[in-house]
Amino acid sequence: METSLAVETIQHSGYNCRAATVNCQTKDIVVHLEHSYAVQVDWTGNRGTGTSDYKSYGRDHVISTEGTVDIAGSSDTVFRGDADRWNPEEMLLGALAQCHLLSYLHVAASHGVIVTAYRDEAVGTMEQTRDGGGHFTSVTLRPVVTIAGDNVDLALQLHAEASTKCFIASSMNFPVGHEPTILRGS
Asked: Which domain holds residue 2?
């Protein structure tokens, strides 16, 4: 069986697609889709003296990307941040919960499970290190999903499949657990 590798990059629906012919006899093709993202972060916390000392500057910033609403950001309040703004730790939890939601809706639709409501109250634990750094040690997603129909077991099982399809969870170096609850709608 002869094997070759021919790689071609094409534009398809706004994405860069790299198609590679893996086996010339069977014409098996593996397609890799690359998605590129860009954000801008502008620090707005200069109180006139810049970062002259730890207490002299604000942690406020604005996160933006073309065509969307800006996000007001800051650090966690324990690091002198503004509680009225999103901090990076909350945004990480939000990204994981949002990605799982979207992956779950996809697999539910693919399997004929009709989701009528979804709410997640995600929690995470971050461990700060002696050198001032830190890292997340775990995140637990706690989605409460309401479905139409009686297929509660399948709806529950689909969380595992959704987890494998979540790009954000697949990129983490800590466990992302799931404690789903399925409710039957009226």
From this structure: 1-36
Does 143 lie in the same domain as 110?
yes
How many independent structural domains does the chain possess?
3
DSSP one-letter code for 57:
S
Is the same domain home to 99 and 131? yes
Claim: this prediction has a pTM higher than 0.85: no
Give the tens place of pLDDT for each residue, 64-113.
Answer: 999 999 999 999 999 999 999 999 999 999 999 999 999 999 999 999 99
Query: Going along the chain, which residue ranges are E strands?
Result: 6-12, 15-23, 28-34, 40-43, 61-64, 71-73, 114-120, 123-128, 134-141, 143-148, 176-178, 181-184
Count other C-beta atoms under 10 Å from residue 27's C-beta.
8
CB of 141 within 8 A of CB of 148?
no
Half-sphere exposure of 174 toward its Cβ, with a 13 Å CA cutoff? 14
Q: How confident is the model at residue 133 (pLDDT cuts 50, 70, 90)?
A: very high
Give the CA radius of gyration of the chain.
Answer: 22
Is residue 74 helix, strand or coil? coil
- Are residue 32 and residue 1 in the same domain, yes or no? yes
